[in-house]
Write a structure and sequence with these properties.
single chain; alpha+beta; Nuclear Transport Factor 2, Chain: A; six-stranded mixed sheet; NTF2-like_dom_sf; Nuclear transport factor 2 family protein; SnoaL-like
Length: about 120
Amino acid sequence: MTSDTKITRDIVERFHNAFEKHRPEDLDDLVGEGCILENTAPAPDGARYEGREACLTFWKSVASSANLVFKAEEISAMGDRGIIRWQLRWSEREADRVRGVNLMRVQDGKIVEGLGYVKGG
């Protein structure tokens, strides 16, 4: 594993843990200037956020939502690219969940791109 891959994996794992543990403050050190975020909704392209503050504001609102339960299915990295396969639940009902993936890019130890996709039905 290259040092870039190790750094990317660490950053992406820390990013996801902020959502699992509902710790939005943990995102502050992870998001870079000029960050671009494409959300999973609305279909088909998702909302686009540009800039560190816009990305942080959106991600922090999600991470602080106590009724959302994120679970990582797999986290991987290659060079500056990270992949998080996840499951999101918003109630105990089996139907109240989705599975998705975030494609991340890390530069200089910060997330500079997050593209979210969800399985639709």
